[in-house]
Amino acid sequence: MSSPYTLEEACEIRTGKLDANEANLGGRYPFFTCSSEPSRIDHFAFDQSAVLVAGNNAQGNFHVQRYIGKFNAYQRTYVLSAKPGFELDYVFYALKLALRSLKEQAQGSQTKFLTMPLLTSLPVGTHSSSDQTKISAVLSALDAKIDLNNRINAELESLAKTIYDYWFVQFDFPDANGRPFKTSGGKMAYNPTLKREIPAGWEFGSLWSIAQYTNGLAMQKYRPQGDDYLPVIKIKEMSDGFSPDTERASPSIPSKVIVEDGDVLFSWSATLAVQIWSCGRGALNQHIFKVTSKKYPRSFFYFELLNYLDHFKMMAEKRKTTMGHITLDHLRQSFVVTPPLPLIQRLEQIVLPMFDQQLGLNQQTLELIKLRDWLLPLLMNGQVQVR
Amino acid sequence: MTQPSYQQQSRDLIDGLKSVCAHHGLGNDGNEYKIIVQVFLYKLLCDKFAWEMKRLESNLAESEDWIAAWHKLPESERDLLELQLGPDVPRLQPEQLIPSLFNRQSEPGFARLFDDKLIEIAAANHDIFAVRTEDGEKVPLFDRLSEYVTSGADKRDAFCRAMMNKLAAFSFEHLFSQKYDFYAALFEYLIKDYNKDNGGKYAEYYTPHAVATVMAEILVPQAQRGTVQNVTCYDPASGSGSLLMAVAHAIGEDRCSIWAQDVSQKSSSLLRLNLVLNKLVHSIPNIVQGNTILHPFHKDAHAPSKLQKFDYIVSNPPFKMDFSDFRDDLDSDANMWRFFAGIPKVPTKAKDKMAIYLLFIQHIIHSLKEGGKAAVVVPTGFITAANGIEKTIRQKLVDEKWIAGVVSMPSNIFATTGTNVSILFIDKASRDSVVLIDASGLGTKVKEGKNQKTLLSGEEEQRIVTTFNAREAVEDFSVVVGHEAIKAKNYSLSAGQYFDVKIEYLDLTPEEFAAKVGGHKERLAAMFKQSHELEKKVQGSLGELHLV
Question: Does the N-terminal or the C-terminal CB of chain B have fewer CB atoms within 10 Å?
């Protein structure tokens, strides 16, 4: 086996020119900084196929990203393009692996700056040009599917929300003749508690009255005894899913704090969020509610909570001098319209397949990520070959 | 060449005095502020005296050397002139005035002469210009300043000569026709070097101008200006008195009297200077140096066991302080009525973090007359705390309908503290509703030294004041709520708790709705198709893998 070629041999390396504060949230082009997600900017300096490497990061996580098109970059971000005979996708995967091990090697004395000499001397690999193409095709097919799954789910989420709001916020649900209720002149009446017009005869309740809220437990009190365990769902897991750092709890915790895929979770402290869980069975930690209802279908309280979320975030912000959370009183005083049950059930029938599809895709995505992360080192070190 | 502005000339004088101190080894010495403040005051009194004398007797104003001319007047005429001087004008003798001392600066032992003259002035004007301590002792106007210079007599003479040269360089007489804003800016400039956190106890002697303005404009709305008179204004933790000056100016300096107590010696002497600058000399006898919480000085004239009550109270009390040596002394039956909501505990791990402001608020509520108005700066945590003394105080204010409103200020409105603050407005002429303003989104952030600071523009201050005084509800900015509603929210006084819920959604026509759903459908169809292809591709490529 020949000695691996370095990044310097495989790539042209440039850096961005801009200060990080030139970002503009509403900008037209992606702006690659040192954070995990690109920001936005109004003007571009690059128009190419590129790999982007973040040059500094306090935690030693040097993010690598792949982008094709017009973009701009921060002065500490490296912009890589392939030299002739090299496959840029392959470089991208090789770098992902190399930087992951760089972080592991640097344990304790964390590397905060990925300097040019450090970067240029990174070993990339030994594969021939045609093998590079084959390997990156396998991995990028997985990534493309993961990315597509996420985009499909965003579409489905937005679609279901559009329908929900059209029916129960704007009140253009189909009337007896199948026409939009409010637009076709359906009778509305002012509700002084909600301070708005709602369909005549409709009732109202509160977030508290339409669902049950089960608070999680402090899971450090329920450490697993043997090898059998449940991963603990904290706020971090709600945003990133389970990871090797995820804490473990005993499977013998009370069943009401065990979470299954499809459960509605609502974190009510620090970071406020509402989501339908899809990362597998887990143990619910404190500061997160599992929200259930015997009476109403899930879509109803899920969307009502979601619609109140921005309001809750604002209130939590106002209270930040004392605490960054909302209280049961807020739930009791958050009034919602309660449409007639048959209508809610009709809507549930429409959005349920969307929810199920999202759940299925999320489960698939988790599987794909596992596969990709397992294959990556095997393919790069030559243990596994592509025919 | 244009003449530098009065503002600039006064600032140059202050800088000049400070540099003389620095050259004589007094820079950053604990006594420097005494010298600067007293010398500045001496200058102010001399020029004020000259200005008043020339106003009374036009012959003096026209003469080339007015002091000589005055000296030459027959004794009866001089007495008559003195009788006509207002009660807030110091009584001075010709040889005590700056030009007279200036002419004698080459005499040996000049420092001694200078000190003697200052002491003479202090003694002759004791009744008007002395500040009291809580024990009833009087703090004279001037100290023997040259004695702060610790090297020999020659050095002291040189020091006094240098001071004299600065003082004689220009006249303050034009200063007396200036307005409040001019004095406020000048005073801030004068004390800027002494307005620091020394040892962490007394952080800020000067409340930001924006806070003072908002307080004064809400307590005394423009529409009421000129109608209020003969009222008392009190600050139990006055500092240098910037809040008192603002409210006195809003009422009219000649229509109110100022009452103050502050534990800091420095504060009392700064406050005295501030009163002289702001034509409030008549209130100097009401300035007391002492501990308001332990020994409130101002008592009811008819019932000495009771506190004196005031028409207006403004205050920016210290929030936290080590009170551990005195705390238990306070916890007595005699104080039960004053501290009705309780006395905060001293935290065991951080003695200096006792929430002393809670005692000040209670003291203020007690010191306010029926129908009186108060404005107090509190940490924003006070307005939402779910229980404890904070809640008991809020409950009292709401149940008695004494609360007029709250303005929550932007963060970093004080450069020295990151604590968010709100201004609590108390009004004992009960109101039927409460105005809550959330101004936390206003202001422009600037760097001041190492600290981040938020500045409010004049328009933003006016927006707060106008909204409050009109008792207006403005979306995401202010609400007007009834006492029952506040009770229902656990007596929270945070505006954000009462803002209407806004559920954001796009109002769609049936056509727009159809188009939006259609767009989703089309994109999803393409994605599902792509998904199938990718699935095949993934399956296919997995089949190609083999272990070496």
Answer: N
Query: DSSP character for A227?
Result: S
Gap between the Cα atoms of B478 and A380, Å rounded: 61
- Which chain B residue shows the shortest CA-CA distance from A329? B489
B520 interfacial to chain A (CB closer than 8 Å): yes
Structure tokens at A46: 């690059």
Query: A241-276, pLDDT tens digit by residue?
Result: 888 889 999 999 999 999 999 999 999 887 788 999
- H/E stretch holding B479 reads strand B478-481
Closest by CA position to A265, among listed A229, A289, A300:
A289
Strand, helix or coil for residue A213: strand
The answer for residues whose C-beta is within 8 angstroms of residue A366's C-beta and 6 or more apart is A241, A279, A280
- The answer to whether residues B292 and B323 touch, using CB atoms and an 8 Å cutoff, is no
Residue A200 CA to residue A197 CA, distance in Å, equals 8
Strands B421-427 and B403-408: antiparallel
Quick check: B495 and A318 CB within 8 A?
Answer: yes
Q: Which of A11, A96, A27, A38 is nearest to A62 (CA)?
A: A96
Asked if A137's CB is within 8 angstroms of B510's CB, the reply is: no
Tell me the pLDDT tens digit for each residue of B256-312: 999 999 888 888 888 888 888 888 888 988 989 888 888 888 988 888 778 899 999
Strand partners, A289: A215, A266
Given a contact cutoff of 8 angstroms between Cβ atoms, the answer to whether B359 and B343 are in contact is: yes
Sheet holding A212-215, edge to edge: A212-215, A288-292, A264-267, A273-276
A76 exposed, middle or buried (CB, 10 Å; 0-12, 13-18, 19+)? middle
Q: Which of B289, B246, B250 is nearest to B270 (CA)?
A: B289
How far CA B217 is from CA of A167, B115, B180, B473, in Å, comes to: 49, 43, 14, 19
Give the Cα separation of A197 and A179 in Å (integer): 19
For residues B412 and B407, what is the distance between their CA atoms, to the nearest angstrom? 15
Range list of H helices, chain A: 7-10, 88-105, 116-120, 129-168, 207-210, 235-240, 298-318, 328-332, 341-380
Q: First vs last Cα of chain A: how many Å apart?
A: 18
Question: According to the model, what pLDDT value does residue B203 have?
Answer: 46
The gap from C-alpha A24 to its chain's centroid, in whole angstroms, comes to 22
Interface predicted TM-score (ipTM):
0.82
d(CA B204, CA A273): 40
**List of chain A residues whose C-beta atoms are within 8 Å of the C-beta of residue B535:** 145
Q: How far apart are CA B109 and CA B107, in angstroms?
A: 6
Partners of A180 on chain B (C-beta within 8 Å) are 510, 513
Q: Out of B503, B537, B548, name the one closest to residue A385 (CB).
A: B548
Strand order in the sheet with A29-32: A11-15, A77-82, A46-54, A64-73, A29-32, A39-41
CB-nearest to A387 from B500, B520, B546 is: B546
Burial A246-263 (b: 16+ CB within 10 A, else e): bbbbbeebeeebbbeeeb
Cβ contact A257:A295 at 8 Å: no
| DSSP H or E stretch at residue B212 | helix B209-219
Measure the CA–CA gap between B290 and B139, rounded to whole angstroms. 12
| Residues 358-397 of chain B whose Cβ lies under 8 A from any Cβ of chain A | 379-381, 384-386
Distance CA(B133)–CA(B126), nearest Å, equals: 14
Per-residue pLDDT, A315: 62
Distance CA A259, CA B212 (A): 54
Nearest to A330, CA basis, from B155, B494, B110, B217? B494
Q: How far apart are CA A253 and CA A224, in angstroms?
A: 10
B527/A148 touch (CB, cutoff 8 Å), yes or no: yes
